[in-house]
Design brief:
about 140 residues; mainly alpha; about 5% strand
Amino acid sequence: MRIGEVAHQAGVSSRALRYYEEQGLLAPERTPSGQRTYPEAAVERVKLIQQLFTAGLPSRTIRQLMPCIDAGHGSPEVFELMAAERDRITAAMAALAAARDALDRMIEIANHPTPEHCPALREPAWAPYDPTDRTAAGPSAPVAV
């Protein structure tokens, strides 16, 4: 099969297939003219690679998993690797949840400002801008006469 046909059947771009090849995830054969050809099983392999990417695994981890997938059995190291990736994703999710919660607090403050969070609501309120006040503009600012 040619690259375009595999891409179409797998639902990815030809560029994605070239990337998978660069990353060592997919190994096409080459015609004498240099065109890529793939076996029928490449479509299923590409779909599996897509599922692994969707699961949040980086290409280097997928590359480490592929020999076990190809052999049909996993090693303890592969299961440790997957557990470590799960822990990494869980930590990233916790960090995103904390960022979301901080943003929720900022939205709440913006919608319901209090003097604690908004200097404009404090007493005394900020004075209006006075262009003749040298102290407000700084010592080197020109004074209007």
